[in-house]
């Protein structure tokens, strides 16, 4: 038997309905027209995952520049239930990690997960994500309504320069 072909492809106006259908099946919350309009302009930050040419997963991210940092926010990353534990989620996270590495200017990657979504929490921990915060009543229409914020630090926050212009010694990362 030949091995299954797992690959990522672009989101285009021709397949955006497949992305909508997939997100409706995989996630308990729904996403509005603005979400899909932005996704169409997201380039490498939005991808469909194919298993032998069938759409079975998708990842959608955006860049967040609030709180004085530049972070990649994973809005959705999911795979149809029968196709889980086959490495499709891993392929999508690795795509995101590669994007962030090539960009070279992100402080962190983060996302929200429902507090009872232990599978997703275990999955993200494998890639170095940690729970950094729990937000009560984050979701409006689903139970449990609380969400963990999972975050992977890419670059430690820089300390502000000292008044005489020198950078505190202990916080440098070993590079010139
Ligand atoms: C989380 C999710 C994306 C993982 O996708 P996947 O294709 O099954 O992941 P992979 O096959 O690449 O799993 C890689 C590893 O992560 C861990 N993992 C994945 N799912 C897990 C689960 N349900 N329980 C425990 N560990 C899990 C395992 O270590 C796994 O390796 P293994 O299969 O060799 O044991 C998928 O379960 C999903 O779509 N969930 C619904 C959507 C969602 O909750 N997304 C997260 C919020 S954006």
UniProtKB/TrEMBL annotation:
Limits of the N-acetyltransferase domain: 6-155
Keyword Acyltransferase on entry: yes
Swiss-Prot/TrEMBL GO biological process terms: mitotic sister chromatid cohesion
Region (Disordered): 157-176
GO cellular component terms listed in the entry, alphabetical order: NatA complex
Catalytic activity: N-terminal L-methionyl-L-alanyl-[protein] + acetyl-CoA = N-terminal N(alpha)-acetyl-L-methionyl-L-alanyl-[protein] + CoA + H(+); N-terminal L-methionyl-L-valyl-[protein] + acetyl-CoA = N-terminal N(alpha)-acetyl-L-methionyl-L-valyl-[protein] + CoA + H(+); N-terminal L-methionyl-L-lysyl-[protein] + acetyl-CoA = N-terminal N(alpha)-acetyl-L-methionyl-L-lysyl-[protein] + CoA + H(+); N-terminal L-methionyl-L-phenylalanyl-[protein] + acetyl-CoA = N-terminal N(alpha)-acetyl-L-methionyl-L-phenylalanyl-[protein] + CoA + H(+)
SUPFAM superfamilies named among the record's database cross-references: Acyl-CoA N-acyltransferases (Nat) (SSF55729)
Pfam families xref list: Acetyltransf_1
Alphabetically ordered keywords of this record: Acyltransferase, Cytoplasm, Transferase
Top enzyme class: transferase
Enzyme Commission identifier(s): 2.3.1.258
One Gene Ontology MF term: protein N-terminal-methionine acetyltransferase activity
Superkingdom assignment: Eukaryota
Compartments it resides in: Cytoplasm
Gene3D superfamilies given in the database record: 3.40.630.30
Name of the protein described by the UniProt record: N-terminal methionine N(alpha)-acetyltransferase NatE
Organism expressing this protein natively: Vanessa tameamea (Kamehameha butterfly)
Highest classification ranks of the organism: Eukaryota, Metazoa, Ecdysozoa, Arthropoda, Hexapoda
């Amino acid at each position: 038997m030949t091995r299954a072909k797992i690959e990522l492809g672009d989101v285009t106006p021709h397949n955006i309905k497949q992305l909508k259908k997939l997100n409706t099946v995989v996630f308990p919350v729904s996403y509005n027209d603005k979400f899909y309009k932005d996704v169409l302009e997201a380039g490498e930050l939005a991808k469909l995952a194919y298993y032998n040419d069938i759409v079975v997963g998708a990842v959608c991210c955006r860049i967040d520049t609030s709180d004085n940092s530049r972070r990649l926010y994973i809005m959705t990353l999911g795979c149809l239930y029968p196709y889980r534990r086959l490495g499709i989620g891993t392929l999508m996270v690795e795509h995101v990690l590669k994007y962030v590495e090539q960009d070279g200017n992100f402080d962190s990657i983060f996302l929200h997960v429902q507090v009872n979504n232990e599978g997703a929490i275990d999955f993200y921990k494998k890639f170095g994500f940690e729970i950094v915060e729990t937000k009560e009543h984050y979701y409006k229409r689903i139970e449990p309504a609380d969400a963990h914020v999972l975050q992977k630090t890419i670059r430690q926050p820089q300390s502000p320069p000292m008044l005489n212009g020198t950078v505190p010694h202990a916080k440098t990362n070993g590079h010139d």
